[in-house]
Fold each of these.
Amino acid sequence: MPDVTTRQGRALGTQDKIVKLGLITFNKAEVIGYGEEGKVYKGKFGEFTNAAIKDYVFTNSSTIARLKERAVKANESLRNVTCANIVGFFSFYEKPNAFYLCMELCDCNLEYFIRHWPQEIPKNGFEQTLNGLNVLHENQFLHRDLKPSNVLVKRERTRILLKVSDFSLSKEADAKMSVTSGPYVGTVGWMPPEIHHEVEAKSPNIVVNASADIFACGMLGYYVVSAGNMLYHSQQDINQDNADYRYLHNHTAEDLVRAMTCRDERKRPNAKMCLQHPYHWDSCKTIRYFKDVSDTIIGEQRNNNTNMANALDQNFHQVFQLEWETTLTLQVQIELFTAPRTRTRPRYNKFKVSSLIRAIRNTKDHFHEMVHLHQELGNDEIELLAYWTKLFPQLFIHAYTTLKPMANLYRNLQQYY
């Protein structure tokens, strides 16, 4: 069967070239993207499945063989993995000096999407990207070239999915999640400093670890959460650690990005740990965390133990300047500090973080009794949490990081760490 056919009744021309490669069919006029190795076309796999076909055309047969080995091996290994955040792989076709990958058709890449529809970025976009990377790492592959153009976006019914794609530089890792590479191991401007240093030194064998993917994914996370802003504006900024956090207004997200882009690659969390970070928690889990922390403090104090409270209160200035009472809205101030004390109205210490967390706990536990405060606190737990975190934006991450070293001592807190 010839590779190129034409639509019946029309003259052969570039715009009418239909390429058929086994079960893969596409029109050379329908270019939907460009990669460093070739073009991406809209086509079909079989008769009914829409697909994206990426061509890799080279005169160097060894280059073709190397790219084919990497891209096809990763895609074949992930073919049976169920993950909405990795682009689907259908098939490939090989010709002399060229091969073609047939993949799931998406709408555009992340760079294009954020440029045109920044208001539509899904709130869990960072988590989706991490989830795709985690699945890749769980299957012993390193991506080695994470960047916005290698994350695809697909509108699917009522949700928007982010999908890690382009495995042309991916490589199967050893048991320590590392690979030995030649000089090309990513894109300048997205390389972690330790890898770029080796590239500049022209090292013939560069060892790349999973932590390199984590660094790039941290940059991607910032890019997503800040609606298209860059954490580092150049590779030089990366190398000199000139990070720009001006556009990240979520302190919990900042904590995660800082951990992922740590200068010491040994201290970067793995993808699974990143997914467990509190930035990805929903409101119900977060407010439950505050309740469990407060319950633990109350239990300790009954036994004349103040270790946890002392740890939280020691660096109170990270949460508020001198005291937290005057930060509250008027009616909540009256409820917590002026109204007569009862069982549901304990005395609060306006100078202590632990007492602030107890106030959150009590407004949660007695929320339905505080109908008179719903105009300020909100109408449900989601709005209740929003009230407190808006007034004290650094409280959550302060509590989480402060208690992390001692969490293993408390059974009801271990689930959060």
Amino acid sequence: MYFSCNMLKRIIFYLLFLYLIASPTNGTSEKPFRNWLIHLGMREDPRDVTFKFYNNTSTPRNEFTLLNSMLISSAGQEDNIHSRIIKNSGIPLVDLGGHYYYFVTHVKANYFVAMEICRNHGMTLLSIESEEENTRIINYIIKYLSKIEHFWTSGGDLGQEGRFVWLATGKPYNYTHWSPPNPDNAGGEHCMEIWKIGDKHYIWNDKACNNDYHFICELKDCTEFCR
């Protein structure tokens, strides 16, 4: 059969195209989910669809479920974005004013281990940047977690006595909610907690960093959870 030069070029280009779209891009036999499947109207076997939450490959899910949960359009859908961040994080994030918090109530840790745990989850130990944020957090604790008396934050004066900064950001306080006469550095107290006093009243307090308390992690910037 006679093939023109142009026809041969078209056949070669078509075969090359089929090879490229069928081949994995990561050098393994695993076929990760690709956005172009949507545009081409193609489907992979759902058993081949894998994705990651927190750098851990999860169990395969139906591709249609993936489309609904992971590829929601962000245009004009602020509520969907927020719910998607919480859903995709894999941990029980709480949305308070557009910031996301993880209230760690199942384990206690000293200040440094608490910071390490938050970082290990892709978050930071809590930094409170305004009166409004402080009010939202305390109101949530009063409503849902009022039996807990102590929560670590990232505040402290470990670098210089009396100069309190948020160690998660390096920024000095621009708002405070201390319980007088605190901070008093009684017995070498250099780390800041949210402390329950009375029945339903929470205030800031400096405390020895080696105490084991519950703590609050936060995610203020949309990072891998939005992807």
Amino acid sequence: MFALLHYPLLALLSWASVSAQTQTEPGRVVWGSGNSGLSYVKSEQFGDFLLVKNRTIKHGLVYESKAAESMCECRTMCWTSSRCHSATLKEAATRSSCDLSEMGPENATMEAKGAASSMFWLEPLNLTYLEVLPRGIYWVHAHKKNFTTARTICSSVHGHRLMIIKEGREQELVSRAAMAMKAPILLHLMNSQNGLVWGDGTRYMDTVMARSIQPTVLSVDIPAYKFVLDKTSPALVQTDFVTEDFFMCQGDLDN
């Protein structure tokens, strides 16, 4: 069974390399504690994947179920099947089983169940940028989407949402992403009757970003905002629900 370790250092990831000190097998590193049930695993041998505790993939989405003694064995079963994008290990005293599914992390319906863990390969998400911090995973989709579609894609992945910025390191992360993409990054920041609010209801003025960036307000009728780097100077610019931009999703690893 995988040991879920909390990795305490910042790790900036590219698809080619990762800087890390704690590994559970050669080329394998795990980020995430047991509180959120969501962990990110980087594996040079098997490919990167998300691990979700106490969740099973809905039975109707499973194309095959096999006997398996451990998550490692279940992972190998999925990895060696050309159809498999996700798998669930159901542990039992007499016979543990591994359910294989073609569903990726964005379209797999899950159900709560103790003594079970589900894994999802990251490849179906079609990412173009990825970073992992001690408390979260952050990624940019390869294709531009409008605000409504971006929010739906992010929330369809377990433990994820469209990006909100509440800490200085998250602001720095979005700056790096915008610089790497050479394009604006859509955020979950919206106009409301109470002023600007993040997607979780936090007032913009109560977060660290308000100390350094004053959002551009063209009209109170323009609902959403995107992060823009103009000659390395950060800005928040209004956008509507129709314009398509790159967007960042975030998954909490220890909330």
Amino acid sequence: MSGKRPKRAKKKPKDEAVYYASICKDKGGFVAKYINSFKGRGVFTSSHFNKGDFLIEYRGEVINKEENERRLKLYDNELEVFLFEFRFDGKQLWVDAAKEDDSLGRLVNDDHLNPNSKMKIITVDEKPHLCLFAIKNISPGEEIRYNYGDSEWPWRNQVTSDTAEPASLVCDDGSKTQTVTSDTAEPASLVCDDGSKTQTVTSDTAEPASLICGDGSKTQTVTSDTAEPASLVCDDGSKTQTLVSHIENLMS
């Protein structure tokens, strides 16, 4: 006879969600980390998860519409985002996870473009629980993200230097150029998709500053008094448009 013990059968994702929801605890394999001043904290994996796996419950107090409206009058903008709206058994309800506790679900960040998990309603003892399930394989070290919904969340349109990606210029063909910052006295450059660099040319004259491309041609900045952002006019007449309100921000 073999001395090996048989492996314990893995629970189905839904059954696992029911179990952890019933004991009000998070399962292992996750850690909360501070990201930056823009995103705050986030939840990252410390082990591998497969597509379809149960991840985390968005745990909090289930409240009705009247109580939600009362709390909205008391909460500031930072707390309002913890009110998760959903429908259950024909009723409009909210999970209020504003209270700071040891649960991780309340710290999972929004990503409406490339989420790796999805929220589903699981019923335990006739009560709703909001649980996240993986919609793709997730490797150790990845941040858990899901789509908060169709609301116009303010951070979705905000471009800030605190984000992980630097501001870019979008060209007419859809390609991007990326700013290269420097601590030296040399002016900042732009790295093009083909690997060449453009260099800023400062001027004491009234003429606007230009960019010298890798092939020696120049682009010229076009200033504007309108609300539209400044653009760059290339030698072939095409324009690039900045994603920030002032081109000077990219060169500072």
